[in-house]
Amino acid sequence: MEPISLRTPLALLLISLGAIAATWWWLATPITLARAPIDPAAKLQCVSYAPFRGVQTPLQSTDRIPAEQIAQDLAQLAEITDCVRTYSIDNGLDQVPGLAEKAGLKVIQGIWLGSDRLKNLAQISTVVGLTKQYPDAITAVVVGNEVLLRGEMTTSDLAALIRSVKSQVSVPVTYADVWEYWLRNREIYDAVDFVTIHILPYWEDIPIRAKYAAAHVDTIRKQVAVAFPGKEILIGETGWPSEGRMRAGALPSRTNQARVVSEILAMAKQEGFRVNLIEAYDQPWKRRLEGTVGGYWGLFDSVQRALKYPPGEAISNYPLWKWQMGGGMALAVLVFGAGWLTLRRRPWTPRRSAWVGVAISAISAGILLGVAADKMFYESYGAGGWLTWAALLAAGVLSPLFCANALMSGRALPTFLELLGPGDYKTRSAMSILLGLVLVVTALLAAETALGFVFDPRYRDFPFASLTMAVVPFSVLTLLNRPQQGPRPIAEAVFAGLLTASALYMGVNEGPDNWQSLWTAAIYFLLALTLWQARVVRTPR
């Protein structure tokens, strides 16, 4: 027993710790850019600005941002840019021009238009007054933002409002929308002084990879310039998200955001066109409309108001990687410890494959713990979101621990009948009950998220990290300790069918370039296969 109980697990533990350390060293490798995203020697031309923090939101009309909060933001932004773009005068944003003038900033002032004609006229009246009150601050007026995209106004009504504003102000007037809607509504071109287009490679109908984003922006800008000769083309919105789900091959990340911003700014300087980045600060409220990815387009984070890419510092997707690596190693040690403690209480000679199964569980959980915790922090929104992600992460941590105990005890993965069925099937083992509860939580959350990707997938995040932590130990346990006889339980078969169908749909719907989707679908299928192999065994009394 000695060679198996001590030398083999010790060697596998060292291999596991080495694999975790090597993977995290690779994941955290910083990138080097030819141009810093934020260059202290060259201020940005302009950035979109919204002042909302925490639970503040423009979706609540009674929220009014205090002047002191806006002044703090503008003083910070004045260190990196010469201009801010706003979108409305609601929620206290009418204070921006006056505060920007004190901070030495110019303002591209927005008028928010919608389907409410009276509110449109009130917005226009207020902005016209602001242009006269702060002529040295407001350099242009944007009459409407993506109102044609939202379908809230006709082209003729919009053109009439643009001409009305032009007749009342002395600064240039424009309209802002995604580039396709400019090409579809060319009559707006005659009404504006310059053309403001939005080019967001991540949100294109065919998403663009980060490495091609800058070239895509330049190609679209030149295409629009050919369609609308004689007037300046301002890129009113462009950028890249730092967190959130993949769309095809477009991956939100800190390094990709830094790369895209850097390359677009370098191109703008080289070719001499104006660009406004979206956006100054992360906006948590946008997650309600666009999912996680909507809240992470900022150059500054929303909580600490700290620059994501301080000049001279390395840019990594995991700046806290040493802590994440350490946490993963500690979890791997605990998983092996659970196996050792089981043998001390029930001494027998385990198969070598049992320790290999423990090692596989420890490696997968140890590598992905930091990723799963990172995703939980950034992707949890609201009480329901935090509860879901926390429960899935807890299942991912407990599954390898309880499965290590089961592997060393020679027990199989419990079925749902052993937890919820009649007395002849229920188990009396406390460890089996705990393991079964973790399995139930994992299966329910997997089914809920899988159905979400079928019926409402656009803004959903992929739970690949936590789900993998939980499912891999289950599958290893089923492979090594599965009962060979007995009927297949109906509940597990239903879950297996649902997960398989969802995984197949995801693979087709999300496409072959989305590795987050493919990974998640593969784990759904692995869980389905694990549940399909379950067998019912009556408990002798």
Q: What is the H/E order? A: HEHEHEHEHEHHEHEHEHHHHHHHHH
CATH topology of the largest domain: TIM Barrel
CATH H-level homologous superfamily name of the largest domain: Glycosidases
Instruction: Supply Rg.
Output: 28 Å
Structural class: alpha/beta
- As a percent range, the share of helical residues equals 40-55%
Overall tally of structural domains: 2
Mean pLDDT: 93
CATH class of the largest domain reads Alpha Beta
Produce a short descriptive summary.
With 541 residues, this protein is an alpha/beta fold. The chain is built from 18 helices and eight strands. An eight-stranded parallel β-barrel has the order 1-2-3-4-5-6-7-8, surrounded by five helices.
Explain what the structure shows.
With 541 residues, the chain is α/β, with parallel strands linked by helices. The protein has two domains: 2-26 and 318-532, no CATH class; 41-295, TIM Barrel. It has helices spanning 2-27, 67-77, 96-103, 117-133, 155-166, 179-184, 187-191, 210-227, 254-271, 287-290, 321-345, 352-379, 382-409, 416-420, 430-455, 464-481, 490-510, 515-532; strands at residues 46-48, 83-85, 106-111, 138-145, 173-178, 195-198, 233-238, 275-277. It has an eight-stranded parallel β-barrel with strand order 1-2-3-4-5-6-7-8, surrounded by five helices. The radius of gyration is 28 Å and the shape is elongated. The mean pLDDT is 93.
What is the topological layout?
Elements: H1 2-27, E1 46-48, H2 67-77, E2 83-85, H3 96-103, E3 106-111, H4 117-133, E4 138-145, H5 155-166, E5 173-178, H6 179-184, H7 187-191, E6 195-198, H8 210-227, E7 233-238, H9 254-271, E8 275-277, H10 287-290, H11 321-345, H12 352-379, H13 382-409, H14 416-420, H15 430-455, H16 464-481, H17 490-510, H18 515-532
Parallel strand pairs: 1-2, 1-8, 2-3, 3-4, 4-5, 5-6, 6-7, 7-8
Helix pairs in contact: 1-11, 1-12, 2-3, 8-9, 11-12, 11-13, 12-13, 12-16, 13-15, 13-16, 15-16, 15-17, 16-18, 17-18
